[in-house]
Specification:
- Two copies of one chain form a homodimer.
- Chain A is mainly α.
- Chain A folds into two domains: 12-64, Arc Repressor Mutant, subunit A, CATH 1.10.10.60; 71-193, Tetracycline Repressor, domain 2 (Orthogonal Bundle).
- Chain A is built from ten helices and no strands.
- In chain A, α1 crosses α8 and α5 runs parallel beside α8.
- The radius of gyration of chain A is 18 Å and the shape is globular.
- Chains A, B: InterPro entries: Homeodomain-like_sf (IPR009057), HTH-type_TetR-like_transc_reg (IPR050109), HTH_TetR (IPR001647), Tet_transcr_reg_TetR-rel_C_sf (IPR036271), TetR_C_16 (IPR041678).
- Chains A, B: One of its GO terms (molecular function) is transcription cis-regulatory region binding.
- Chains A, B: Residues 35-54 bind DNA.
């Protein structure tokens, strides 16, 4: 699933060895605990080569998960603009990703996350370090509420993706994007920015 | 996964042969197209034995999917009582099922549905024939809107189950039931019974 482009030099075997070592390290030690140095040692290469191939640790992590997107791009797109419209922008950007050329990779990722415990563990790290840690500052939420608010919204969206793109339940699977944005956008808006009576301790 | 109790007579191999033939028939022909007679023939037994072991075709279908519950029980529980509280009852009953002794079977079912196309196909039949067909009359919804309303609610709940019980994302995984009922109940209520501007054609 890793795309190789003209801009990425090097031996495919070396790249794959680094990705394999990275998967093991991230699954065993978590994102913060896994060092580029240890991953390089695991792959039998120099740490400089890891940086050369993959750039930052974030980028290496996303590549090791075969992530179809860098969530920071989605977060940046969604948080730019009117705060009262963040819900509808979020749902629209999410659906556009799944309906676009990267949708097949997203289905593959979702299947693998559900299928095995170690990919589930990687995905927890993904949500924590690539989504929550990067989204909270941009969303301007109360720190005590932010993680529950974002995971409520994310759980709805991942369920929508599961129903629409993996299980393909009708009429969800064929519903126009605008219909789903109108239905689900207000829910995501409520989870992210509105009062949620009974949810947070007073 | 199939529970055998003192009330269920017969040879385990025969039961398994019937379930195996049922899975194939339901996946290939759908719930309505698969006949008890053809399933019995596939298993090399008399149709009366299929009825004797499993009762109705609905029950045989649920057994063939290793369904942890009969959705009609959940639907009956949720639709009894005040219509304005249906959302919170739905979320509470759903979480209680996953947190109860049948939760492990529910996780296994969700994993298998995501893992393979033929279980996804079976699950589509499950949603159509065991949930939608049975829930719509009890919910008293407009027939033109009912399927989208119910699948919107169901997609949220399946996403919640995925995040909380399979991927185990915090803080969702450890959130008290009451917190999630307070957060998600109003969403399910809105999807099922409230106005959804922009969702249904005028």
């Amino acid at each position: 699933m890793v795309r190789r482009t003209g801009r990425r030099p090097g031996n495919p075997d070396t790249r794959e060895a680094i990705l394999s070592a990275a998967r093991t390290a991230f699954a065993e030690k978590g994102f913060d605990g896994a060092s580029i140095r240890a991953i390089a040692t695991g792959a039998g290469v120099d740490p400089a080569l890891v940086h050369h191939y993959f750039g930052t640790k974030d980028k290496l992590f996303l590549a090791s998960m075969n992530s179809p997107i860098d969530p920071i791009d989605l977060i940046t797109e969604v948080t730019a603009g009117d705060r009262d419209e963040i819900g509808v922008r979020f749902v629209r950007a999410f659906l556009n990703m799944w309906d676009g050329p990267r949708g097949a990779a997203a289905v593959a990722l979702l299947r693998s996350v559900v299928g095995t415990e170690w990919t589930a563990k990687l995905f927890r790290e993904f949500i924590l370090t690539q989504i929550l840690r990067r989204a909270v500052p941009k969303l301007g939420l109360d720190a005590a509420e932010a993680h529950l608010r974002i995971t409520l919204a994310a759980s709805h969206l991942v369920g929508l993706a599961l129903a629409r793109y993996v299980i393909k339940v009708e009429p969800l699977a064929s519903a126009p994007t605008d219909t789903l944005v109108a239905a689900i956008g207000p829910t995501v808006q409520r989870y992210l920015t509105e009062e949620l009576p009974g949810v947070f301790p007073a």
